């Protein structure tokens, strides 16, 4: 079956797959393999002091609520500067989402380099968190505000997206939009703008912290499984959640790991949020066009992570389980370092709708696809 047909078929699973009940059961099993450790202000707040949103986020972090929000949408949105929009916290975020998504689409290849960079920036800002690093790091906007985009080697390739984030912040800060929220919201807009990507539940109200984040807290593409599992345990992220997060490499291209093959993707459909990445990493000899990071290969083979990795390799049957597992894990990641979780407000309804099917060309021109990509290292859970 050709790639295009598989992607369309995968997108129609929710309504057409005859084993949907079994698939949902499997999805729930994979999605639930995460830590229930609380973070931020939820560590100390008793349940009777939680706001409705705080209680929802606690349930999400515990695997007790649905991490995707597919049904809550705007049927119409008021103009930006009207009293109606000012009265609705999420109204301005709908305008921001529309602005962002319009710049992230590629009519030929799905989602484009800006989308990939926004996902990577979301990981780098939030993923800097360490339980042992004190009050800095996490999803606080520091990667842009402290100019880490430009000054730290781990962030090679991020300056152009940080320039774009700064421009968006200048445009929307008059509406009370923080850089911390803008970075995480852009990552979720990018994810759902990519065909087949999940609509991750999204919350706003984070506070900016311009202090530099801790160093040496982001993963490297050459790290082994022990190093990666220990690094993410320090972020309250379990090995299974790590496997789900690293799947965002499905839309990645690399420019520094192997400069002789700069621009090569990590799977054969880098504009589509599909599960091909998992299966192609596991292949002894993968497609010639892709690059494999040793960190990904290590996770695919380690006894602590191999089972979950293999659970995401089915092109047809793994899309729903992975989307749910990724959504839950990314919600946790996006809350790291946030100490006012109980004050946040959900604005999932502002996100674009999911694109559940997509017809890419059978042979994408990856030189064309990546020619406007700024040089960049691997994205998401492996930095």
Automatic annotation (TrEMBL):
Heme b binds at residue 249. Residues 113-310 form the Plant heme peroxidase family profile domain. Gene3D superfamilies: 1.10.520.10, Peroxidase, domain 2. GO terms for biological process: cellular response to oxidative stress; hydrogen peroxide catabolic process; response to reactive oxygen species. Its cofactor is heme b; Ca(2+). Keywords: Calcium, Disulfide bond, Glycoprotein, Heme, Iron, Metal-binding, Oxidoreductase, Peroxidase. Binds 1 heme b (iron(II)-protoporphyrin IX) group per subunit. Binds 2 calcium ions per subunit. The keyword Metal-binding applies. GO terms for molecular function: heme binding; metal ion binding; peroxidase activity. Transmembrane segments: none annotated. The record marks 120 as: Transition state stabilizer. PROSITE patterns: PEROXIDASE_2, PEROXIDASE_4. Its EC number is 1.11.1.-. Ca(2+) 2 binds at residues 250, 267, 269, 274. The active site is at 124 (proton acceptor). InterPro entries: Ccp1-like, Haem_peroxidase, Haem_peroxidase_sf, Ligninase, Peroxidases_AS. Disulfide bonds join 90-347, 111-194. The keyword Transferase does not apply. Ca(2+) 1 binds at residues 125, 138. Pfam families: peroxidase. Belongs to the peroxidase family. Ligninase subfamily. This is Peroxidase.
